[in-house]
What does this fold into?
Amino acid sequence: MTLQNLVYLLLLVAVGYGAFALYLFIMQPRLLYYPDMPGRELEATPTAIGLAYEDVALQTADGVRLHAWFIPTQNPRATVLFCHGNAGNISHRLDSIRLLHSLGLQVLIFDYRGYGKSEGRPSEAGTYRDVDSAWHYLREVRGLPEAGIIIFGRSLGAAVAADLAIRMRPAAVILESAFTSVPDMAARFYPWLPVRLLSRYRYDNLDKVARIARPLLLVHSRQDEIIPFVHGELLFGRAREPKQFLVLTGGHNDAFLTSREAYTHGLRSFLDTHLGN
It folds into this structure.
């Protein structure tokens, strides 16, 4: 290969590398949020699992209308503000709603902007406004005290929940299958790109978990194929006391079902310790 051909080849590689980096920078919203997987249509409601519910309309501070469900229970131990994971919508979380309900908890679960029947398009700042509107609903419309609310987040929802948890004083916080930050996750998938410079999103759980001043339960599976177990370990190491770490087995999306007995026991133990009723 001549020097001229080598220079030409290196130029092509550099242009391709730059083009792919630019593509990732521009396409980050589509790569991070999956409101259309498996679809935005609601597949079922809590009546499918024998639970009564109320349709709730939330209004965010920037005027976006969100869709939510409130699932009551008699003599609730507490109310869970449920921040779900990335793909799908609230109708894909019926197993979790049923499990929480069986523990004597009533649930408010909402769809982020751009998910399910909610208006708008997702963004990091937008998801924080979304959870704020859910908190406002529980506090101002339902009249619930902070000490009667548990903030719960799974996967992407753990990042949304963590942001709320550093600004409010709930009874407790549960973060399940949480990552340390979006740049950390991006570095795992694209180790050969300067993703920490390219990332337009932070969702910095590692910083925020150290600022949560309420009882905290971290839940993670050793077999999580999407968010490595080490993320849970790092978060637990950074978190303040009182804190607990519940280790599960199973995949990212089904560990709470695969490890149902251990999961249910772990949640009940945490609730017994910090709710006291």
In short: The CA atoms of residues 124 and 201 lie 7 Å apart. The chain has one domain: 33-275.
